[in-house]
Amino acid sequence: MSGHAIISGGSSGIGLAIARELASSGWRLSLLARDRDRLAASADLLAADGAMAVRVHPVDVADQPALAAAVQEAVAALGPPSLLIAAAGMVVPGHFAELEDAAFTRTMAVNYLGSLHLVRAALPALRRVPGSRIVLLSSGAGLIGLYGYTAYAPTKFAVRGLAEALRSELAPEGIGVSVVFPPDTDTPQLHAERRLRPLATSRIAAGARVQPADAVARAILRGVRRNRFVIAPGWEMAALAWLHSFVGPLLHRFWFDRIIRGCRRQPPAGDVSGITCQPAQDDRIS
Ligand SMILES: NC(=O)c1ccc[n+]([C@@H]2O[C@H](COP(=O)([O-])OP(=O)(O)OC[C@H]3O[C@@H](n4cnc5c(N)ncnc54)[C@H](OP(=O)(O)O)[C@@H]3O)[C@@H](O)[C@H]2O)c1
User: Fold this and answer.
1) How far is the C-alpha of 282 from the C-alpha of 286, rounded, in Å?
2) What is the CATH number of the domain that holds 239?
3) Residue 229: burial class (beta carbons within 10 Å; 0-12, 13-18, 19+)
């Protein structure tokens, strides 16, 4: 498996780890992200890893015309892609009532619309490569809504919905679609979001195992090679991906709600974020 891969969010975390895996197999790579210095540093790393060619395209995926132009440039430079990976993403954890309106609109613009417009811009070129594949990064928060993720979870539900609908539309053309539910992965995003998580969110997530980005990237590419629609690295995410409709309500009722109520009874002495726990929604209504 080799060819040209276009990767949004390819300068950091999971996107960069995927790019490094592909580089060592001799792929041609186009990276899309905003920060030029980080893109340049990533390109150097990938060249050292053995990439056949690397191009970087500084762009904000929320800027649709600029994104379309970047994809066109990538195709003109390195040819039509056989792999398109939408990994650019952001998260603003916090209590619903305390978040700025912009947290909701910006997160949807980057995570959902940024993925949508990337696919729409690249689709004509993907059609030129038999067996090409689109990989969309969702999240466990795209399977079950989590306390403290009202700005993020809906964007990842939307990505999952897009992937499901797109898979059935593009399958007759031979274009594959995968949706990825990464576990907590050791990346700059995870480190940043942990500092902002409300206490209840941190307690709910406390048992989750954090995986290295390179292991997650390898699991994603294994799923791609096997033409998997759902790619859920690790047993926790695999179980959630297959059983979420059944398990989600049980987790909320018998585990998360108890943590959240306990969090309210014990004021946040250990809350390093300084954000107080709010009553659970059910408690406010009663
Ligand atoms: N890490 C986890 O535990 C985890 C778990 C579940 C799902 N995910 C999802 O996996 C994906 C990758 O996350 P990560 O943890 O690897 O994050 P990361 O290390 O923070 O990397 C994010 C990448 O996206 C780029 N990016 C962010 N906003 C952008 C924008 N508006 N336009 C263009 N590029 C943008 C960043 O570069 P610039 O900042 O330079 O633009 C960077 O290259 C995300 O969609 C995330 O939601 C992550």
Assistant:
1) 6
2) 3.40.50.720
3) middle
Show the domain range for 75. Answer: 4-247
By CB atoms closer than 10 A (0-12, 13-18, 19+), residue 260 is buried
Buried residues in 19-39 as b, exposed as e (16+ CB within 10 A): bbbbbeeebbbbbbbeeeebb
Active site residue 138: yes
What pLDDT, on the 0 to 100 scale, is given for residue 62?
Answer: 98
Would residue 267 count as lying in a domain?
no
Q: Cite the DSSP H helix spans in 112-152.
A: 114-126
One-letter amino acid of 33: A
Rounded Cα–Cα distance for residues 263 and 261 (Å):
5
Nearest residue to 86 via CA among 162, 190, 3: 162
Answer whether 261's CB lies under 8 Å from 280's CB: yes
CA of 54 to the centre of ligand 1 (A): 19
Cα–Cα dist 169/262, whole Å: 46
How high is the mean pLDDT in each 10-residue block of the chain (286 residues)? 93 98 95 98 94 96 98 98 98 96 98 98 98 97 95 98 96 97 96 92 89 98 97 93 84 84 62 43 30
Nearest atom, ligand 1, residue 11 CA: 43
Does residue 118's CB lie within 6 angstroms of at least one atom of ligand 1?
A: no
Q: Is residue 104 part of a domain?
A: yes
